[in-house]
Amino acid sequence: MNQLIRGGAILVAILGTNGFAAAQRIGSAQPELTANQQQTVSQGLATSPSQPTPSGEQAQVGKQVPDSMSPQAMPNNVTDQVPETKNLLFVKLPDRILLIDPDNKLVTQIVTDDNSSTTGSNTGGSSSNISDRPSR
Q1: Residue 111 CB burial class (10 angstroms; 0-12, 13-18, ≥19)
Q2: I want to staple 78 with a disulfide (CB 3.0 to 4.6 A). Which of 5, 44, 69, 120 is the partner?
């Protein structure tokens, strides 16, 4: 009887460990970057050339990156500051950055490239209309 209980406990431990390991792999491939980390990624990739947005194909989180896009390795200046991006690829588009899992080519996160709207938004001048945004 003790052997049966011990065998069952070992089986539960093995299955639980495999499930935990799988959850870790999924979690590490799909980082949830904070707003500061996203801004760091965006700034770190500011000098990288943008690819044109393909017509008719819209990249979405959880979907494969379209074949017309060419993912690139994340540069060291970004991975040094945001280690969660170390094993990811990226595609920089004119208005956003796609973070991509290299194993399955799935888009794991989309970082909006909003440097133009946040840079220098409160530099000098009157502070009475800080919340007002200029129309584009």
Answers
A1: buried
A2: 44
